[in-house]
Automatic annotation (TrEMBL):
Protein's recorded name: RAB4a, member RAS oncogene family
Source organism, top-level taxon: Eukaryota
Keyword field contains Nucleotide-binding: yes
PROSITE patterns on file: RAB (PS51419)
GO MF term list: GTP binding; GTPase activity
Keyword Iron: no
Amino acid sequence: LIFPHLLNIVIILCGNKKDLDADREVTFLEASRFAQENELMFLETSALTGENVEEAFVQCARKILNKIESGELDPERMGSGIQYGDAALRQLRSPRRAQPQGTQECGC
């Protein structure tokens, strides 16, 4: 297994078919330990009931956002793998450049 912390990527291990507990082949504890040892996020999900399906995406997105805010990831760096969905959001997140003294910012 490649170590995700070295690549600065986010990986989530999803145990699926949580609703079929009787047919389980990997215990929650085994999967949880594996995820922890390999620095992976871990959730058990069920597409049938919808349990934790959305939560998997939310947790993954939250972890990526935390890495951006802490400076671990730079979305502006080519090859970061991160793109903002809307150009307006890029402008909101980018720090404004200081205007030279005596000039005004165009309001058009």
